[in-house]
TrEMBL record:
This is Phospholipid-transporting ATPase. PANTHER family: PHOSPHOLIPID-TRANSPORTING ATPASE FETA, PROBABLE PHOSPHOLIPID-TRANSPORTING ATPASE. The chain crosses the membrane at residues 80-98, 280-303, 323-348, 878-901, 907-927, 956-978, 998-1019, 1031-1057, 1069-1090. The active site is at residue 396. Gene3D superfamilies: Calcium-transporting ATPase, cytoplasmic domain N, Calcium-transporting ATPase, cytoplasmic transduction domain A, HAD superfamily/HAD-like. It comes from Salarias fasciatus (Jewelled blenny). ATP binds at residues 396-398, 500, 541, 564, 598, 678-680, 791, 797, 820-821. Residues 1118-1127 have a biased composition (Basic residues).
C-alpha cells in the first residue's frame, strides 16, 4: 500500500481472519468483535472537564499564562496583581470549553440518532425490534424496502425471484443507480420462514475488516458443504434497500468494522497555516522575552553591585540576599511585567474574529439556495482565514459539478439535425426556460417532465417518416432498462445508467413507448399501437466493445440487429454505402461535442434467417465453454456487427450545476488549480471537463496516463514532463520546508511552456501513488492547468490530497457531496460539503457546506479573502501595539535601577488590551474590506497575495517588531525629555513618576489608535464609534480612577490621586502627544507613499480604480450560456456496467408481478460501475460551417425495414 494510506481504525490486535457462527451470540462474543454502535464524540459528563482542560493546556500560550499566574502569587517577584492574569485566562478557558462542548454535543446527537434506529433482529426464534447499537455480529436481521442497511451483512434470502435484492449505494460510492445482489441458493431456500432461519447454524470464515468496497472473500460452511462468498453476496452498511419487499441478512461486521466506517478516513484536528506560524512565532517571542529578562537581570546585578549601596538607607536588603539573588528575582519579575508581548487577549480576539466571520458566511443571502431552503453553513469557526489562501481545489464530479441529471438534448437522423430552435429569419435562437416547448399531448403515455423545443422532430414522427421511426424504435428496443407500471399508463423506468434512462424516455415521448419486458420479449407501444418483439440475443456492453446490440424478431417475423455505441466504434463497422451520410452525421457530432454533449451513434442491420440460425448455434456453444469464453463470444459479436446501416446520433446533456463554468474560470484567474477526483469513467469525466471549462481546446495537449504497470506509468509521466520541456532528471529537486517545520521536504514550483491538462485513471493512479513514482506524478500534475483522476476509490482521493499536502507548500480544499468524498474532505486543509443528491455524509464531515458549487467562488474570493486580510491586519496591528507597549517597559528599566518598576499605572496595564484597544481592533477585524464583493469578482487576482502569504509571514512579523521598537523609543524618550527638568505654568516641578506614566500611556494610546486608522481601508459607523468611544472611555476611566473619591475608598489600589487633572491641563503635555504621534507615524506614511508610487500591489491598483470610479460597483457579469466550439469528439454516452444483458435474458433481473409499489416517482440515475478502460482523445474532425437543418441533397438514403403496425389485444 502507498505511503499515504490512511489507517482509519487502529486495533490493539490485528485481526487475521473473522469467524462468525449464525444465531450463536455466546460463541461470537468470545472473539470480542466490535458492536454495531458508533462513537464520534470525544467527551462525556465525567471526562469533559479534565480532558478539555488537558487539551487546552497543551497549547503553549495557555500553559505559559498558567505559569505566569503562579509567579504572580509569589510576593517577592510580582509587581502586578494576580487578577491581571486570572481574569483573561478564565475567560479564554470558559469560551473555548463552551465551544468544544457545543461541538461535541452535536456529535453526541448525531451518534444517538444513528445508534437508536430500529431494526428487526431474530432472537430466541422471534423477530424483535432492537436498536442498531444492540445488534451483534452473528445476528440475523430483517430489512424492508427503503430501509437503511444496519451493518455489513451476508445476504441470506429475499422476497425477489432468485433471491435478488436491489440496493442504492449513494452513501458508499456516490452512485445513485441501483445495484443487484444475490444470495446463495442454499440460504435462499430459507425464505422468510422464521423457524428455518432460527435453525440456521452456518459458519462464515472471511477476511478481516478492511476498506475495500469492491472486494470480499470468504466461505460459508453449511450442512457439511463449503460455499464461496464474494462481494455480490454482501450488503454493506450505508446502502439503502430499494424495490425489494424484504430480505434477511447475517451480520458479519458491525459499527467501526464496517466498510463505511473503515473508509471514513482519520479525523484530525485542523489548524490554519496562520495558527502553525503563530506557534513558531510564539516560541520565538518566548525566547526573545527570556533574552530581554536576562539582559535586565544582568543590569540589575551590575546596578546592585555598583549603585545599590547608595540606596540601602531606605531600601534595606533582606538578610542573606545579595546582588545575585536580587538579579534572579528580577528576572522572574520582568517575565511577569513583559508578558504582554504575548497577551492572552490575543487568543480571545482571534476566536471572536473567526466566529464573527463565520456568521457572515451563514448570513450571506447570495449563498442561500432558495429551491432547497439551504443556507451556507460554517460548521467550524477556526478555519476562516485559510479560505483566503487556497491553492488547490479537489472536487468530486457527479453531484458536485453536475446535477447528475441526463436530458435528451439533440439528435441527428438521416443527415438532419434536430434540437435547435430558429426564428422567422432562420437565425438560431438560444434555448431558455421561456422557450416554447413541444406539445406531447398526442401521446397519453408521454412523461410530463420531458421537454424538447424543436417542433420539427415531432412533425417528422407524426408524418411517419421511416428514418425517424426507425431511430426511436431502436432507442425503445436496444437497452437494459426495466419498466414498472403501478397504474394504467403510469410508467417508471429503472435504468442502470442515467444515459439509458434519458434515451428510453425520449423514445417514449416521441411515440415509441417501452412498456415491459420478459427474458425473451420486449413490448413497446408504437404511435399508440402495442407491438411485441421477440428478444433473441443481447450483445452486451463492455469497456472494450464500447457498444451494445440487440437482435429482435418483429411481429412480422423480420430479423434485425440494432446497435448503439461510441461513434468511432460504430463508424468502423458501417457499410460503405453510408459514407456520405457518415460525413454529414460527423459534422453534427462535432457540433454536439462543441457544446459538451454526450453522444452515441445508432445503426441497424437486417439478418438472414439461415445465417442467424447458424450464428445462434455457435453463440450457444461459445457461451458454454469453460476456457476462452469471453474471447470466443467477442469474435462472434464482431462477426455479426458488421456492414451496419447508419441511422443517426443522439446528444445527451449531463446538466452542469448553474454557474459551474463561470466559477471554474474565476478560480483559475485567481491562480487556483482545480483537480477533479471522480469515480466515473474517463470519457464521462473528460466530457464534463470540457463542458465546464476545466479542459480547454486552447491547451497545447491533454496528457492521458493509462499505464498498467509501474514502469509504464513512470514512463508516461516522464514523457509528459519532456513534452512540457522540463528536465526530468530534476524531478527530485526539493526544497527544505522551513516554514511549516515538517521533516518532509517541499517540491519547488515550476512553470510549463504553455497550458496543459492531465487525465489519469484509477489503476494507473494506484501506481502513481507508489513511493518511487509519486513525485513524478505530483510534478507532472502540478505543471498542468487542470487534472482529472478517473475511477478513483474514496481512499485514493484522500491519498492524492495527502500527497499534495506533503510535498507542496500550499493550502488545499476538497469539495464533494457523497459519502465517498468523506476521506478527501477530512484529509484536505478545508473540507466543503455540498447538500446534494447523495445524502448528508459529506456535509456532516465538512468544515463548510452549501447547496451549489457556484457558491465556492464567493466563499473563497469574498469571504475567504476578507477573512484572511482581516486576520493578517489584526495580527500585524496587535503585535505592533503590544510590542510597543512592552518595549517602553524595557527602556524604562535602564532609568529605574532595573527594579521591575512598571512604567504605566497598574490599572492601565490591566485595561489596555481588555478595554482601551480591544473594540477598535475587533471593529477593524470584523468590518474592514479593501474592496467590495463586486470588485473582488471583477479582479480575482486580488486572491493571489493570500496564496503567497504576503500579508502575514515571518518577514512581516519582524518588520512589525522593528516598527514597534522605533515607536517605543519615541514614546519613551520624547515624553521623558519633555518632562525632564520641566516645570508647570505655576512654577512647580512637573517631572514626577506619576505624571510621566500618565503622559507616556496617553501618547501610546493616541499613537496606536491613529495607526489603527491608517490600517483600516473601510470605515463604518461601528468602527468610528469604537475608535472614538475607546479614546473617550480612556479619559473617562482615567479621570475616575485618579479621583479623590476612589483614593479615599481604596488608597492602596488608586494611588494616582489627582494626576489626571494635574498633568493633562498643561499645554506641554498635549504638545508632547502631538509630537510623539507625528514622529511615530511619519515614517509609516512616507513608506506607504513611496510604495504606492514605486511598487504598487494589486490591491493598491484596484483600490485606485475604486476611488476613480467613486466607489461605484461595477456591473455584475452577465451570466450568458457558454458555448464552446471543439474539434474533439464528445465521449459516448454509456456509463452502465457490463453483465446486465445476461441478467435481462436470464430473467434474474425481473421483479415478480406482485411487487410492493415503489416510493420513487422517477427513474433513478447515477454513476458508472463498469471497469475502466483507458481511452485517449478521439480522432477529431474539423467542424464544417453548413446550415444545421439543411438536408444534404446528395446523401444516399438508406433502405429501412418498414414495419406495419399490428395491434395486440389487451392494449
Amino acid at each position: 500500500m502507498s505511503f499515504f494510506s490512511l489507517d482509519c481504525v487502529r486495533k490493539k490486535e490485528r485481526e487475521l481472519e473473522r469467524k462468525v457462527r449464525a444465531n450463536d451470540r455466546e460463541h461470537n462474543l468470545s472473539f470480542k468483535y466490535a458492536t454495531n454502535a458508533i462513537k464520534t464524540s470525544k467527551y462525556n459528563l465525567l471526562t469533559f472537564l479534565p480532558l478539555n482542560l488537558f487539551e487546552q493546556f497543551q497549547r503553549i500560550a495557555n500553559a505559559y499564562f498558567l505559569v505566569l499566574l503562579v509567579l504572580q502569587l509569589i510576593p517577592q517577584i510580582s509587581s502586578l496583581s494576580w487578577f491581571t492574569t486570572v481574569v483573561p485566562l478564565v475567560l479564554v478557558l470558559l469560551f473555548t470549553a463552551a465551544k468544544d462542548a457545543s461541538d461535541d454535543l452535536n456529535r453526541h446527537r448525531s451518534d444517538n440518532r444513528v445508534n437508536n434506529r430500529r431494526v428487526q433482529v431474530l432472537i430466541d426464534r422471534k423477530l424483535r425490534s432492537e436498536k442498531w447499537m444492540d445488534v451483534q455480529v452473528g445476528d440475523i436481521i430483517k430489512l424492508e424496502n427503503n430501509q437503511f442497511v444496519t451493518a455489513d451483512l451476508l445476504l441470506l434470502s429475499s422476497s425477489e425471484p432468485l433471491n435478488l435484492v436491489y440496493i442504492e449505494t449513494a452513501e458508499l460510492d456516490g452512485e445513485t443507480n441501483l445495484k443487484v445482489r444475490q444470495a446463495l441458493p442454499v440460504t435462499g431456500d430459507l425464505g422468510d420462514d422464521v423457524e428455518k432461519l432460527a435453525d440456521f447454524n452456518g459458519e462464515v470464515r472471511c477476511e478481516p475488516p478492511n476498506n475495500r468496497l469492491d472486494r470480499f472473500t470468504g466461505t460459508l460452511s453449511c450442512g457439511g458443504q463449503k460455499y464461496p462468498l464474494d462481494n455480490e453476496k454482501m450488503i454493506l452498511r450505508g446502502c439503502t434497500l430499494r424495490n425489494t419487499e424484504w430480505c434477511f441478512g447475517l451480520v458479519l461486521f458491525g459499527g467501526p468494522d464496517t466498510k463505511l466506517m473503515q473508509n471514513c478516513g482519520k479525523s484530525t484536528f485542523k489548524r490554519t497555516s496562520i495558527d502553525r506560524l503563530m506557534n513558531v512565532l510564539v516560541l520565538c517571542i518566548f525566547g526573545f522575552l527570556a533574552f530581554m529578562c536576562a539582559v535586565l537581570a544582568l543590569g540589575n546585578l551590575f546596578w546592585e553591585r555598583n549603585k545599590g549601596s547608595s540606596f540601602t538607607a531606605f531600601l534595606p536588603p533582606l538578610d542573606g540576599n545579595g546582588p545575585g539573588f536580587s538579579a534572579f528575582l528580577t528576572f522572574w519579575s520582568y517575565v511577569i511585567i513583559l508578558n504582554t508581548v504575548v497577551p492572552i487577549s490575543l487568543y480571545v480576539s482571534v476566536e471572536l474574529i473567526r466566529l464573527g466571520n463565520s456568521f457572515y458566511i451563514e448570513w450571506d443571502r447570495k449563498m442561500y439556495y432558495a429551491r432547497n431552503d439551504t443556507p451556507a453553513e460554517a460548521r467550524t469557526t477556526t478555519l476562516n482565514e485559510e479560505l483566503g489562501q487556497i491553492k488547490y481545489v479537489f472536487s468530486d464530479k457527479t453531484g458536485t459539478l453536475t446535477q447528475n441529471i441526463m436530458t435528451f438534448n439533440k439528435c441527428s437522423i438521416n443527415g438532419k439535425s434536430y434540437g435547435d430552435v430558429y426564428d422567422y429569419t432562420g437565425q438560431r435562437v438560444e434555448v431558455t426556460e421561456h422557450t416554447e416547448t413541444v406539445d406531447f399531448s398526442f401521446n397519453r403515455l408521454a412523461d410530463p417532465r420531458f421537454t424538447f423545443h424543436d417542433h420539427a422532430l415531432v412533425e417528422a414522427v407524426k408524418q411517419e417518416q421511416p428514418e425517424v421511426q426507425a431511430f426511436f424504435r431502436l432507442l425503445a428496443l436496444c437497452h437494459t432498462v426495466m419498466a414498472e407500471e403501478k397504474t394504467e399508463g403510469e410508467l417508471f423506468y429503472q435504468a442502470q445508467s442515467p444515459d439509458e434512462g434519458a434515451l428510453v424516455t425520449a423514445a417514449r415521448n416521441f411515440g415509441f413507448v417501452f412498456r415491459s419486458r420478459t427474458p425473451d420479449s420486449i413490448s413497446i407501444v408504437e404511435m399508440g399501437q402495442q407491438r411485441r418483439y421477440e428478444l433473441l440475443a443481447i450483445l452486451d456492453f463492455n469497456n472494450v466493445r464500447k457498444r451494445m446490440s440487440v437482435i429482435v424478431r418483429s411481429p412480422e417475423g423480420k430479423l434485425c440487429l440494432y446497435c448503439k455505441g461510441a461513434d468511432t466504434i460504430i463508424y468502423e463497422r458501417l457499410d460503405p454505402s453510408c459514407s456520405k451520410l457518415m460525413d454529414v452525421t460527423t459534422e453534427h457530432l462535432n457540433e454536439f461535442a462543441g457544446e459538451g454533449l454526450r453522444t452515441l451513434a445508432l445503426a441497424y442491420k437486417h439478418l438472414d434467417e439461415d445465417y442467424f440460425r447458424d450464428w445462434r448455434r455457435r453463440h450457444h456453444e461459445a457461451s458454454t465453454v469453460l476456457e476462452d469464453r469471453e474471447d470466443q463470444l467477442d469474435q462472434l459479436y464482431e462477426e455479426v456487427e458488421t456492414d451496419l446501416l447508419l441511422l443517426g446520433a443522439t446528444a445527451i446533456e449531463d446538466k452542469l450545476q448553474d454557474g459551474v463554468p463561470q466559477t471554474i474560470e474565476q478560480l483559475s484567474k485567481a491562480d487556483i488549480k482545480i483537480w477533479v477526483l471522480t469515480g466515473d469513467k474517463q470519457e464521462t469525466a473528460e466530457n464534463i471537463g470540457y463542458s465546464c471549462n476545466l479542459l480547454r481546446e486552447e491547451m497545447k495537449e491533454v496528457f492521458v496516463v493509462s499505464g498498467n504497470s509501474l514502469d509504464d506509468v513512470r514512463r508516461e509521466l516522464r514523457d509528459a514532463q519532456t513534452a512540457m520541456r522540463l528536465d526530468t532528471a530534476a524531478a527530485d529537486s526539493l526544497l527544505p520546508d522551513g516554514v511549516l517545520g515538517k521533516d518532509a521536504t517541499v517540491m519547488a514550483d515550476e512553470t510549463a511552456n504553455g497550458e496543459y491538462g492531465l487525465v489519469i485513471n484509477g489503476h494507473s493512479l494506484a501506481y502513481a501513488l507508489e513511493r518511487g513514482v509519486e513525485r513524478d506524478f505530483l510534478r507532472t500534475a502540478c505543471l498542468c492547468r487542470a487534472v482529472i483522476c478517473c475511477r478513483v476509490t474514496p481512499l485514493q482521493k484522500a491519498q492524492v490530497v495527502e500527497l499534495v499536502k506533503t510535498y507542496k507548500r500550499a493550502v488545499t480544499l476538497a469539495i464533494g457531496d457523497g459519502a465517498n468524498d468523506v476521506s478527501m474532505i477530512r484529509a484536505a486543509h478545508i473540507g466543503v460539503g455540498i447538500s446534494g443528491q447523495e445524502g448528508m455524509q459529506a456535509v456532516l464531515s465538512s468544515d463548510f457546506s452549501f447547496a451549489q458549487f457556484r457558491f465556492l467562488q464567493r466563499l473563497l474570493l469574498v469571504h475567504g479573502r476578507w477573512s484572511y486580510l482581516r486576520m493578517c491586519k489584526f495580527l500585524r496591528y496587535f503585535f505592533y501595539k503590544n510590542f510597543t507597549f512592552t518595549f517602553v517597559h524595557f527602556w524604562f528599566a535602564f532609568f529605574c535601577g532595573f527594579s521591575a518598576q512598571t512604567v504605566y499605572d497598574e490599572w492601565f496595564i490591566t485595561l489596555y488590551n481588555l478595554v482601551y484597544t480591544a473594540l477598535p481592533v475587533l471593529g477593524m477585524s470584523l468590518f474592514d474590506q479593501d474592496v467590495n464583493d463586486a470588485w473582488s469578482f471583477q479582479h480575482p487576482q486580488l486572491y493571489v497575495p493570500g496564496q503567497l502569504n504576503l500579508y502575514f509571514s515571518k518577514a512581516a512579523f519582524f518588520r512589525c517588531a522593528l516598527h514597534s521598537c522605533y515607536s517605543s523609543l519615541v514614546l519613551f524618550f520624547v515624553p521623558y525629555a519633555a518632562v525632564l527638568d520641566s516645570v508647570r505654568h505655576d512654577g512647580k516641578d512637573a517631572a514626577d513618576y506619576q505624571s510621566f506614566a500618565l503622559l507616556t500611556q496617553t501618547c501610546l494610546l493616541f499613537v496606536v489608535t491613529i495607526q489603527l486608522g491608517l490600517e483600516m481601508a473601510f470605515w463604518t459607523a461601528v468602527n468610528t464609534f469604537f475608535v472614538v468611544g475607546s479614546l473617550a472611555m480612556y479619559f473617562a476611566v482615567t479621570f475616575t480612577m485618579y479621583s479623590d473619591g476612589l483614593f479615599l475608598a481604596l488608597p492602596s489600589a488608586f494611588h494616582f490621586i489627582g494626576t489626571g487633572r494635574n498633568a493633562l491641563n498643561q499645554p506641554g503635555a498635549w504638545l508632547t502627544i502631538l509630537l510623539t504621534s507625528i514622529l511615530c507615524l511619519l515614517p509609516v506614511v512616507t513608506l506607504r507613499f513611496l510604495s504606492l508610487q514605486l511598487r504598487p500591489t494589486i490591491n493598491d491598483k484596484v483600490m485606485l480604480k475604486v476611488r476613480q470610479a467613486k466607489a461605484t460597483p461595477p456591473p455584475p457579469p452577465r451570466r450568458a450560456r457558454m458555448r464552446r466550439t471543439s474539434s474533439r469528439r464528445s465521449g459516448y454516452a454509456f456509463s452502465h456496467a457490463q453483465g446486465y444483458g445476461d441478467l435481462v435474458t436470464s430473467g434474474r433481473f425481473l421483479r415478480r408481478p406482485a411487487a410492493t409499489p415503489r416510493t420513487s416517482g422517477s427513474a433513478l440515475v447515477g454513476r458508472a460501475t463498469a471497469g475502466f478502460s483507458p481511452m485517449g482523445r478521439s480522432a477529431g474532425y474539423s467542424p464544417a460551417g453548413r446550415q444545421h437543418n439543411a438536408k444534404v441533397p446528395d446523401v444516399q438514403v438508406t433502405s429501412l425495414q418498414m414495419y406495419r403496425t399490428m395491434a395486440e389485444p389487451g392494449l
